Amino acid sequence: MKKIILTIFSVLLFQNFSFAQDYNSYCSSYVPKKNFxxxxxxxxxxNLLSRNIIEHQMTKxxxxxxxxxxxxxxxxxxxxxxxxxxxxxxxxxxxxxxLEGLIFSDVDIYTICPYNRVxxxxxxxxxxxxxxxxxxxxxxxxxxxxxxxxxxYKKIIDKINSNAVIKNMFQIKNSKISIxxxxxxxKYDIALDLGFIKKTSxxxxxxxxAVEEGQIKLCDFELNSLKAGYSSLLPLINNFKPAxxxxxxxxxxxxxxxxxxxxIKDNKIDFLGYVIIKKSGMQ
Length: 283
Known about the structure:
Number of helices: 6
Structural class: alpha+beta
Shape: elongated
Mean pLDDT: 76
Helix content: 10-25%
Strand order of the largest sheet: 1-3-4-7-16-15-14
Order of helices and strands: HHHEEEEEEEHHEEEEEHEEEE
Largest sheet: 7 strands, antiparallel
C-alpha cells in the first residue's frame, strides 16, 4: 500500500503545474459488500490497526521522498478491505513542500471519489477504478524570494539572455518579482545595445494570473504602472503555459493534470486543480 500511495504522490508532486467539467463523472459507484470476515475484522479492531500502520508507513515514505512532513489520513471501509487496496478516501496535508527551487505552502491533496482501489502487480500499481485527486496550494512572497536565489531561476534568465534574437539587442542584468496589491510585480534592469544606443533602462510591469482557454496567462496587465492594452507585448511576456496536460505515472499508467484555477489573493498565488488517473488498461 505504501508503494501505491507513493506513486500517487509522485504524480502530484513531481510535475510542473482547465476546463469546467464534472470530475465526479469519472468515479466508480461501486461499494464493497460486507461479509462475515469483514465484520469480524471490524469488531476486533483489525481495520483500525491496519489503517494506523499504513498511515504511519506512508508518512515516513513520503517524508523520505519529498523532505516534507505530511499528515496522512485514510478513511477505509469496514473489515480488511484496506488490505485489498480498497479505501473510501485519502488526504494529505503539509505546511511546506519544496519542489525544484520553489516552496509551496499549505499543500492539501485528497481523493474525491467515494470508492478507490489500487493494487500492486509486478511491483507496479494497478488502478482498479478511475482515481481523481483534488489539490490546492499557494506561493507566498517569502517563497518567491527564495526561488529568485536558486539556480533554477538563473537558468531561466540565462535562457532568455542567450536567445538568438534577444542577445544582440538587450540583456537582463537584474530582476525582482514581488506580490503586492494582489498582483505580481516584475522589475528588470535591461542593458540595451542597439549599436547607436547603449544604456541601461529599468522596466516594470504588473499582472494577475488566470486560467483562460486552457492556458495559464498573465492578465490585467499594467506596464510601468500605466494601464495599457499592450496586446502585442503580452505574447512576448506571457508563457502561455498549458493548464491541462498528460503525465506519465509509470510504464503502463498515465494521468491528466489540470489546473482549474490560479489567482492572486491576500498577496498569495493560489492554485487549485485535479489529477485524473484512469483505470489501468483504459488509458
